[in-house]
Amino acid sequence: MEITAEAKAIKVSTRKVRLVADSIRNKSVRDALHVLAVTNKHGVYPIRKVLQSAVANAKHNAKVATDTLIIAKLEIGEGPFLKRYHASTRGRTRPYKKRTSHIKVVLTEKKEEVK
User: Fold this and answer.
1) Cα gap 8→100, rounded to integer Å
2) pLDDT tens digits, residue range 26-78?
3) CA–CA separation, 16 vs 40, rounded Å?
């Protein structure tokens, strides 16, 4: 069973979020939350919130034990960006983009290996 949680248009650049996402892919939820607790990056906060939301969905909606969950997919996509300008020399302006991210977490149950 797959349990999903999604957050859209998060005001953190996709590049910053992907740095953190690469460190927790294919880990158990417990290990991922531990890694997020000790990581000092700006992209940690939205990923932690989405991961906790997915765990809550698994617990309350699917009635799955949280100890058996692993991160099956962690997708980081570009969201819409805000076009802004700042002043430059001689009365000119320079454009820049305030980038946003879409975060999607898919959790599955860990399969027991038969020996």
Assistant:
1) 8
2) 999 999 999 999 999 999 999 999 999 999 999 999 899 989 999 999 999 99
3) 11
Q: What order do you get walking across the sheet with 101-109 strand by strand?
A: 3-10, 101-109, 69-78
* 115: its two tokens: 């020996």
Beta partners for residue 73, in sequence order: 106
Which residues share a beta bridge with 74? 105
Q: Determine how β-strand 69-78 pairs with β-strand 82-87.
A: unpaired
Spell out the residues 6+ positions from residue 12 whose beta carbon is closer than 8 angstroms to its own: 42, 43, 45, 46, 100, 101
Kindly report the pTM of this predicted structure. Answer: 0.89
